[in-house]
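Hi V.,

You were right to ask for the full record rather than a summary. Here it is.
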Amino acid sequence: MGANADVLVIGAGMAGVTAARELAREGFGVIVVEGGDRVGGRLRTIRDFGPHPVEAGAEFIHGDGAATWSEVRAAGLSTRPCPLVRDTMLSLGGSARWLPIALLHPGSWHAATILRSIASFSPPDVSAREFLDRRRDRGRARLLSEMTLTAHLPGSIDEIGMSGLVSDGVHRLETGLNHRVVEGYDRLPGSVGGDLDICFGFVVETVCWEPDGVTLRSTDGTELSARTAICTLPVGVLESGSVRFDPGLPDGKTSALRDLQMGPVLKILLRFSERFWPRRLAILACGAGPVALYWPVAYGTDTDNPTLIAYATGPRAAALAEAGEDEAAATAVADLGRLFPKVDVRHSLVAHRQVDWGADPLACGGYSFVRVGGVGARERLAAADTGALLWAGSATESSPIAETVEAAYLSGLRAAREVRAMLGA
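Predicted structure:
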């Protein structure tokens, strides 16, 4: 069949709409296909759970130098700063304490060099467990060091490779200043993709790629063809086998998917009758317990919206998902009772909602991490080695921090440049 467009883009997440917008601006005929009914992918905002938008997916703009700031300003969006250190509380098994106080405990001192140890790590690669065992942290220090490695990554300490963690820039998430988009983070991809031709409900079943063209077939039999295409499917979807590639993917791609692992990420939204945590609390990190991090939605505002986001990754997320939504919420509330023992948290709960990215067939997980010995997997996934089929998405970029909105955005810009080189101006 004849070509329907110059470029087909698979996925209307941040990477897809960025690449499509860049190419459409230059006069290419672009069609975006999206299996869901909205723009944003794993960047999703919920607006019916209280007076403030609540982020079900990506939460923050990471750092003052993120490449997406130009798009945030162009969209006219406002932001609130969320400092990671100044207004952080910490629990290493007991009740919550302000971070400086928790770090003054002698049992925590041995973990003081953990970020320096991560930044200076060099091959050969080892698992996070072996890395921690070599440091010989014990007790509170071990909990603190382990939390530093796993709070943001959806894998166990046996699965996470240290070389991949360093190359992905994950340790940078522990420093710097985060920002929350006041109007909701989904306004960003919504602004970038506002004028695009997007086919919603197009669930890709088969991708037929050749040197001079690509044809997509959906689960309902619809076909679209173009001179080239950009695939932004998450690693979890690629690993699931729900999308067939014809011909099959080359060794570079299959080895990349073996070396990357899509892990579970789960959020529980909790609204209470009143706020029981300190007003200036920005984040509560837990070295032990069922939840890794808690975020107050209203931090930095003048209103007293008593809503928390409970965030879990890896084994903790898997355990909560298996428990079911009601039991998971009860578990988080009981955990908050441990963290704030002077408050009757259970009777203060008004509503809860669960967001399980592992159960979403269009995501099949929260985001990916690099297995032991898998450094270079993201570059192999991004490589232009499948004819007219090119690759983007947050899993295809390591710098500055892999699997972030900024990484997705930068991958979209890169894929657009590759299309220009392939098709000409």
